[in-house]
Amino acid sequence: MHDSTNRTNRRARKRILAGLALSALLPITAMAQPPKQPETPAQQVKQLFDDVNKRVLEMAQDFPADKYDYRLRKEMRSFGEVIVHIMSGNVYATKAGGGEKANWDELDPKNYRAKADIVNALQKSIADCAATLKAHPMAAGKSVEPWLGVMQHSSEHYGLLVAYYRANGLVPPVSRPKSK
């Protein structure tokens, strides 16, 4: 019985020593990895701006081409016209964010008749926004306008695009089950 008690005590001591050694190493490994810096408000705005544009682009690419002229009501914009309207905001943000004096000049949807034209122009407007944000980052003390205003505007119209999907018996891309 004395032998088994000694073995049990030795095992317990080994476990305690292993635990102590591991706990001594944890601060060292934590120090080896630099702490993640919190995102600045400007970085957060950029991330949210990029996210809403990504979602709108995904819808623009996904929505059936033969339904781009669909309107919820006759006095409302068609699906394609809503995408062009969102794109107008991106064009404004690119100009204003780059320091140009800019007005919200509505792009004419008649200049973008086919789905491919609209998707390509939307992709370009998103790329232009990204380039402007890179070349003219929002610095401390600098207003996050026009990015916040355009992001809010695009988010409102994103919700409208969801209604276009649902009215056509379609499931918006973000609401679809994700495959693993």
Task: Name the features.
180 residues; single chain; 5 helices; 2 domains
Explain what the structure shows:
By secondary structure, the chain is mainly alpha-helical. It has 2 domains: 1-36; 41-174, dinb family like domain (Four Helix Bundle (Hemerythrin (Met), subunit A), Up-down Bundle). 63% of the residues lie in helices and 0% in strands. The protein is built from 5 helices and no strands. The chain starts with a helix and ends in a 13-residue tail after the last helix. 21% of the residues are buried. The model has no long low-confidence stretch (mean pLDDT 85).
Detail the topology: elements first, then pairings.
Layout: H1 2-32, H2 41-62, H3 79-97, H4 115-135, H5 147-167
Helix pairs in contact: 2-4, 2-5, 3-4, 3-5
